[in-house]
Inverse folding.
């Protein structure tokens, strides 16, 4: 998964109450592939992506709703023009 997908997976894991830390495979290359790990420390972590997927599948069967998808990128600022006479 890429960084954008990883943010959503992290949100789903937290929402479902499942353990896991989503981080890049190579901490020096955040643009590369990402995985789910048991710890944040790159030297002591173990890949738990498969366990996280099993946990998600079980959570889906329980009927818990998913968090909303992240918003699509777009304008984040704008102007409010008051009507004449105010």
């Amino acid at each position: 998964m890429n960084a954008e997908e990883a943010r959503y997976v992290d949100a789903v894991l937290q929402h479902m109450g499942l353990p896991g830390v989503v981080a890049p495979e190579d901490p020096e290359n955040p643009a590369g592939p990402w995985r789910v790990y048991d710890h944040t420390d790159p030297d002591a972590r173990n890949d738990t992506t498969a366990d996280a997927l099993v946990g998600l599948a079980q959570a889906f069967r329980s009927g818990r709703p998913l968090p909303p998808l992240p918003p699509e990128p777009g304008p984040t600022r704008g102007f409010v023009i008051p009507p004449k006479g105010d």
In short: The radius of gyration is 18 Å.
